[in-house]
Amino acid sequence: WGTLGHETVAYIAQNFVASSTASWAQNILGDTSDSYLANVATWADTFRYTTAGKWSAPFHFIDAEDNPPSSCSIDYDRDCGAGGCVVSAITNYTARVQSTKISSSEVATALKFIVHFVGDITQPLHDEAYEVGGNDVDVTFDGTSTNLHHIWDTNMPEELRGGYQLSDAKSWAADLTTMINTGSYKSQKAAWISGLDISNAKKTSLAWAADANAYVCSVVMPNGATTLESGDLYPTYYNNAIPTVELQIAKAGYRLAKWLDAIAAKSA
Ligand code: DCM
Ligand code: DCM
Ligand code: DCM
Ligand code: ZN
Ligand code: ZN
């Protein structure tokens, strides 16, 4: 996801965490503002483009070597590269944020990575190897030449909400929070966190990756990718895809809240 998506995930999580979890996270991050998670949600994207942070680039995705649209699947041994992947990263940083043997700045880094990667893992194309997660599928969106990955990360969320300021994320998060509490997500939210277990972060995050990867076959490219390279994907493709974009952002925020609640409860 781009800036808008990650900050929205963070604000949704802030809306659902226990107040003791909020204090735990604010203490680690040294930020008692009302945007303490949103303020660090895109740090991992900035870091991976620095020379010092290049090693973390593979942590943003898992390259499923499946065969969409006929067959979607995730296999850890097949798909998590030698340099790591989003599943190994969530597993590692979930352990590190609880460690008493590392510095407070390293604990803060672990928390910032978790806030970001629990977001990225719900973007279907972050759980897909085909054409480098869709980066090599050239598309036109609302008159702009871009690629399939980028419209899922950024163009479609921004088309929906109209901007990518913190205030845009806060208002999208408020709307999705209402949908989770009383709207169309109310009956689904328990399934989103089913099996959630911080002591088996690998199993839990693999299930999250498989859940998102399935949308590559059903929603992202149900008729293959070739058909997406001609014509403008706005509005027809967008109208079909945007409910899945919203669902996946809402899911990530709700899961992040429960994940942090479980970690903070154990660290108390
Ligand atoms: N991005 C960033 N800093 C940069 C370059 C990009 O924060 N120097 C953000 C904006 C993009 C997002 O990264 O929307 C894309 O990240 P990914 O492609 O890992 O999802
Ligand atoms: N960005 C974004 N959506 C855009 C333009 C930029 O998410 N339409 C992100 C990418 C950068 C950050 O916002 O990480 C700042 O972008 P800029 O330097 O273009 O202001
Ligand atoms: N990406 C991905 N799968 C890959 C490679 C990259 O999901 N195999 C993501 C990470 C960024 C975006 O695509 O969100 C662009 O990556 P980069 O800036 O590394 O080209
Ligand atoms: Zn991306
Ligand atoms: Zn990322």
Helix content, binned percent: 55-70%
Weakly predicted, low-confidence segments: none
Q: Which small-molecule ligands are present, each listed once? A: 2'-deoxycytidine-5'-monophosphate, zinc ion
Q: Whole-Å distance between the termini?
A: 31 Å
Q: What proportion of the residues form beta strands (DSSP E)?
A: under 5%
Number of helices: 11
The general outline is: globular
Enumerate the strands of the largest sheet in spatial order, edge to edge or round the barrel.
1-2
Protein architecture, described:
The chain has 268 residues and is mainly alpha-helical. The protein has eleven helices and two strands. Helix content is 56%, strand content 3%. A two-stranded antiparallel sheet has the order 1-2. The model has no long low-confidence stretch (mean pLDDT 98). The structure holds 2'-deoxycytidine-5'-monophosphate (3 copies) and zinc ion (2 copies). The site of one zinc ion (ZN) has 4 residues, from helix 7. Residues 123, 126, 149, 153 line the site of one zinc ion (ZN).
Q: Mind sketching the topology for me?
A:
Blueprint: H1 3-16, H2 19-29, H3 43-48, H4 76-79, H5 86-96, H6 104-120, E1 138-141, E2 144-147, H7 148-161, H8 166-181, H9 189-192, H10 201-220, H11 236-267
Antiparallel strand pairs: 1-2
Please describe the structure with a list of short key phrases separated by commas or semicolons.
268 residues; two-stranded antiparallel ribbon; 2 strands; 56% helix; binds 2'-deoxycytidine-5'-monophosphate; binds zinc ion
Briefly summarize what is shown.
The chain is built from 11 helices and 2 strands, in the order H-H-H-H-H-H-E-E-H-H-H-H-H. By secondary structure, it is mostly helical. The chain starts with a helix and ends with a helix.
